[in-house]
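With this grant's support, we have settled on a layout for protein records. One resulting record is reproduced below.
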Amino acid sequence: MSQREFEYTWVWSLQAKPEALWNLAADTNRFDRDSGVPALQSLPSDELTNARTRQRIYLFGTGIVYEQEPFKWIYPYRFGVIRNFIGGPILELRILAELKPRDDGGTDLSYQVCATARNLLGTLLIPLQIVILYQRTLARTFQKYDLLAQATSPIVTRVVASHSLPGAKRAWQS
């Protein structure tokens, strides 16, 4: 049976600017957790080159192993990743997020998922997993990030030099 590729693209019109959304959406560990992706387990990957990693997730009680290409980030407008699965019903998963600024100060966020089925089971599971389960959690997660980005003002940190801090002089002299 030939491998079938599924492509899904969603676009959300958000109120925050791409720069304000970036730290939330591009923090892939946080995003995975917030959008319900099972916890990742890093596996030994000594033989892999070019910063590839090997990961395992457990989905429906089954361990799924994949090799992940390095993430590609273009601040604050685009990020994506490719995951090549070792066995199982999915052969490859590609994800690309693009944050496009609008003239009104908001962002059109497009999120593309391309998944290639390895076999008939993958052909059945990919639409179920992505359309029925993942689409809702993506929308909720990006809407939550939009509200957070609008409510959060940038954190400004000032470093004040002072010799009156207790113990400061001793720490530098030892």
In short: The chain has four helices and eight strands. The beta strands are 5-14, 41-43, 53-59, 62-68, 72-74, 78-86, 90-101, 107-117.
